[in-house]
Amino acid sequence: MTVWVASVIIPPGMQKRRTVIFLVFTVLTSLVACRPAEGEPGEGGVAIQNVGSDTIVNLALAWAEAYQEAHPEVRIAVTGGGSGTGIAGLINGTVDIANASRQMKAEEVDKAQANGITPVEHVIASDAIAIVVHLSNPVDCLTLQQLSDIFSGKITNWSEVGGEDRPIVLLSRESNSGTHVYFLEEVVRLGEKENKTLFSPDTLLMPSSEGISAEVRQNPNDIGYDGLGYVTPDQKTIAVAASPDGLYVQPSIETVNRGTYPIARDLYMYTAGEPEGAIADYLDWIRSPEGQVIVRELGFVPLQAGGE
Length: 308
Hints:
Blueprint (H helix, E strand, L loop, with lengths): L1 E6 L4 H4 L6 E6 L18 E7 L1 H17 L3 E8 L1 H10 L4 E4 L5 H9 L4 E15 L7 E3 H8 L17 E5 L4 H11 L15 E3 L2 H10 L3 E6 L8 E2 L1 E3 L11 H6 L5 E9 L4 H10 L2 H9 L11
Parallel strand pairs: 3-4, 3-5, 7-12, 8-9, 8-10
Antiparallel strand pairs: 1-2, 5-13, 6-10, 6-11, 6-13
């Protein structure tokens, strides 16, 4: 029998909220590529494969840890890799729950249906995408249009938006990230369906939210974006306005719930059809007040019915 141990790095600002260090699960050596079907008893009970969004991964790990403490018969294996990875696994039938920080695309739904799978969407929390810069950066406010111009490469110097005469260094998540896709569509392209603007080719693509945070802390020229749960006190967040004459708003749980912060989105889990058995129970628990308290603890935005 083989024991796998997956270590997870928790951002500094999240360590005091909740510590999620190890997920340990066992598999039969001769069946490394296999798992018990959902609802069938395995060696430790029911096995649930939960894969996808790196934005959600620490939240999913915290949920899995808490749920397994109360339900030791359920084993939940959580893996990141990006929203695209989780959705691809759902389409291929290798994932029970796909985590995504964006909605599935029409072509992804078509591929799933071609494989006999009907994806079902479950909103499990909300999130603000915070614009982050170095603490020493004097710029406090930006509009969505300015952000589009910055990340597309039209604005290249901080002096063009009221800052110092310094080159702007762009940081983004990689293209497999749901956060990357959302930011491209809603910020770089300003939510305009016919807009084909792209990220500047000079943009540095980072493999994780933690990677963006680390770079921003080191370089006063950087600008990046991160889910609210990954923002730490040693970064500065920019207040954002939807238009030049609009209200400049900082990202927070309260401004997302009020609908005043302009870069906010839901977070999702997808299942193959309506969930049943252990998966249905787990999703119900996630959306319950008990599960939503963990959302708030990790800095994300709980569903308004829970976590208050």
